[in-house]
Fold this protein.
Amino acid sequence: MIYRVAIGAFLSSTDVATDMYVIFTYYQSTELISQANILLAMIATNLFVQVSERKNKAAQAPLVPKTTRWGRICSKTNDIAYFH
């Protein structure tokens, strides 16, 4: 599990770095300034949608998860985790 998180964080960081490089490069060219603005607007919109979805999910989630007698967590997303 920790490797999956580490790989995901690495890929996400690499994606941010390449996006910043492309936007910076586009702003240096006079012909590509409008494309840089469009790309920046797309990234900002995507970030806004992801953050607002997270806030909605966090507001709907119970503070204390319900557990069954077998130690499974019951949630709205049907995630199951076993306690040991």
About this structure: The two ends are 17 Å apart (CA to CA). The longest helix spans residues 33-60.
